[in-house]
Amino acid sequence: RFLEEVKFECHFFNGTERVRLLERRVHNQEESVRYDSDVGEYRAVTELGRPDAEYWNSQKDLLERRRAAVDTYCRHNYGVGESFTVQRR
Fold first, then answer.
1. Can you tell me where the transmembrane regions are (predicted)?
2. CA 55 to CA 86: how far, in whole Å?
3. Which of 2, 32, 80, 88 could pair with 48 in a Cys bridge, judged by C-beta atoms 3.0 to 4.6 Å apart?
4. How far apart are CA 16 and CA 13, in angstroms?
5. Alpha-carbon distance 2 to 19, whole Å?
6. CA distance 48 to 54
7. Per DSSP, what are the bridge partners of residue 15?
8. What is the pLDDT at residue 83?
9. Which pLDDT does position 46 carry in this prediction?
10. What span, in angstroms and rounded, lies between the C-alpha atoms of 12 and 64?
11. HEC secondary structure over the chain
């Protein structure tokens, strides 16, 4: 048996002035590859993740979509959730 997880994290600084997207690929509780919008490409965390990072970095359309996700996913969802989180303080 094995467990594969994909986690997306949006980190917001000063509202949405600066946004960082992290995509983490986890295999059996060990992160193997990660996309960091501050870097702009996939990076292997372990040797297991190296082939995936190399392949995904060769897919220019995938990288463009991931880079755009800072706006289409993170900033969009900040606006959706803002009324629930920011106003409750």
1. none
2. 39
3. 32
4. 6
5. 32
6. 11
7. none
8. 64
9. 97
10. 21
11. CCCEEEEEEEEEECCCCEEEEEEEEEECCEEEEEEECCCCEEEECCHHHHHHHHHHHHCHHHHHHHHHHHHHHHHHHHHHHHHHHHHHC
Give the closest residue to 49 by CA, choosing from 27, 73, 77, 67: 27
Give the pLDDT of residue 73: 93
Dihedral sign of CA atoms 1, 56, 54, 9 in order: negative
Structural tokens at position 15: 């509202």
The CATH number of domain 4-84 is 3.10.320.10: yes
Interatomic CA distance for residues 20 and 17, integer angstroms: 10
Residues forming beta bridges with residue 35, ordered by sequence position: 23, 42
Q: pLDDT 10s per residue in the chain (89 long)?
A: 989 999 999 999 998 899 999 999 999 999 999 999 999 999 999 999 999 999 999 999 999 999 999 999 999 988 776 666 655 55
